[in-house]
Fold this sequence. Notes:
Number of helices of chain B: 18
Strand order of the largest sheet of chain B: 3-2-1-4-5-6
Helix content of chain A: 25-40%
Oligomer: heterodimer
Shape of chain B: elongated
Largest sheet of chain B: 6 strands, parallel
Distance between the termini of chain B: 46 Å
Amino acid sequence: MPALDGVLVVDFGQYLAGPFGPMVLGDLGADVIKVEPVTGDGMRLAGKPFFGCQRGKRDIAVDLKTPDGLAIALELIERADIVHHNMTAGVASRLGIGFEDAKRVNPDVVYCNTWAYGLEGPLAHFGGLDPLYQASAGLEYEAGAAHTGNAPLYYRFGMCDAANAMLSVVGCLAALYHQRRTGEGQDLWTSLFDGGALFASDALLVDGEALARPRLDKGLHGVSACYRLYATQDGWIQIAAVKEVEWASLCALLGVPELADDARFAVVDLRADNRSELEALLEPLFLNKTSMFWTRALDEGGVPNEIPNDTNGGQQVLFDSDNVALGLVAEYEHPTMGKMRQFGELIGFSDTPGNIGGPPPRVGENTREILEWLGYTDDRIEKLSSDGVIYWPRADYAWTV
Amino acid sequence: MAGALDGVKVLDLSWGIAGPLGVLLLAEQGADVIKVEPPGGDPFRSYSGYAVWNRSRRSVTVDLKNPEGQAAFMRLIDEADVVVEAFRPGVMDRLGIGYDALHERNSRLIYSSCPAYPEGHRLADRPGYDALVQASSGQQWEQPGWRMGPIFLHMPMPSMGAMFLVPTGILAALVAREETGSGQHVTTSLFQGALLFTTQIWQYVEKAPAAFHDLMGKSYPPGIHQQMLFEVADEKWVHASVMSGLIPTKSQDELLGLEDAPDPFAFMAMAPEEREQFTMKRRVAYKGHDRDVLVSNFQAHNHAIEAVITMEEALGAGATPHPQLLANNMVATVEDPELGTTTQIGVPINLQGTPGAIQGPQPMPGQHNAEIFGQLGYSESDIAKFSAVRA
């Protein structure tokens, strides 16, 4: 039985930072009900990012702005262990599904809001997209080596969306554990903005002044002469000669054993001080041989290294036999898009294995089934549908996914 | 008020980033964490970020290869709810403190492992520094940069992903233990941490048209969000976003002082060259503005925008901290035993009923030997024996 078996998560989120957290909870065995507007999650149009945050969920499409729709939402909240969404400030309360509303029907509920910025403060009323928080946390500045005069650089994976979602997962589980032990629910929040800051948590000030930390070179190779990418005759190699013995071995393999004892490079701090000088000496040596030559030689000499893998946009990773055999890849079939693959199990459990469900649901995929579970009669369901309060996929299905 | 994880006892044997930082998220929600270091201390103490990632816990030093040291460690295991380690698969077993041995000793123990690669993978015996996993997992090839080829990610992406997976697995196992009464082995890896972030992009979709993959594809110059980075006066930068969730009260072009700006529909209808020409005009206009004035003007008119700053600047180096960072209670002063008065990030998870808190600075190696082993009845001379650096 999965770790979160029997845990009901009601997910009112849209886009990314809301829905991704409930998807991860679903992977751990929670029953996740996505409550979607009858007009569809705004992210469906984008396809891929939508798929990436929705697998394994059941879906009910409801217009929350109608009294009947709100009543359905509250009936779901009543049964929920966790309520989760990423609406901007005030929206949930206006709809009638804020924390106070939720607590009224479910006193020990865990209620989570993932914000863009935060609960209060000068920018709390703003929504926003991932790159803003890569900017405010210094990630773009460091990624592009802006201190060298380069332009800042955006990390193309939506890092801060994922950070916000994962902080919410950790927060919800901590609150759920507390609830299981004490019977007390509570509300909690996380944000994209704080998620970005956590990624840059190696930054700190001493007496108000920045403490130096390793930076990228202008060519975006790495953070020190011994922990970086080098171009080879036919490609690239990443080395990590972290220990003194590995440094000495590296010099020997490159045919310059005398560098190991060179006063300019003798210890790690000196190699940092004289980094560009050292890199200028090492770069041409790597260019003399192929990546395969170097990885074999470095392995032999005990110097940690890896050839950067070009995965063709991740396709290779999703069809790698070891990844597939170990369950790191999930495959399921979507009604219109056919077979889909995405990463699979991110956490293994010896006794309570995870449970990666089916494909991302279509709009209102499980509307009928969920309403029947709530005790709605067929007549009532048909009436709600003809009133436009609820929706399930029919011939008029307007979305591609 | 007690934290949500009050009373949960964690032994942290991990090193690097993912383990210590993942454990931090638990510690600051109230878990009682003891860092278990080799005599002489964790060899990674000089790394930047160490003081932040290892705060909010106590430290003991113990030689796990010394039988008396291992016996003392086992006494700690008797009382623990969670143990966290980040060695290569098999290392803990060889020390005699693998999952089976510890589970037999304490069946309620949750045993969390976070090596670089999962056990059974052909890469599992490869060395596991973050940048090596960036390389092997394909992250470096996926990141566009200012040249072709793989790009080194300054942010240690695999570790930062695994940092979330470590506490997630532990907490799910704690919740399950409330039902089953039993602990278990929970495993993740830096490699799986890297996969976590690929969710929006790395997919195989059988019937998808090519455009489906292009949307989030890698490109030169780097993609859509990169085009929203603008240089302003004094070689500084801003990142403007298209969505704030609010209705702008003046257009971007008005705020930049651009005459004859097309409305968004006219802009979209332009031929690509014409659009590019206008975009260039915009880029030039941005350069004429002071960064901080521009940012507050844009924000005052409901445009989402941020200055591209360093994290140190956000924390207040050379300026005042980012006002939202202050509002989120994310600027913390910590008296560090090694560094002195420091400013660090605060607690990024906000439980309102049981608020989290920083529990103290990074401990010095073995700082709590006497306190923790003393409570188990060990004398000072006993402790000295199994905590000493071997000759």
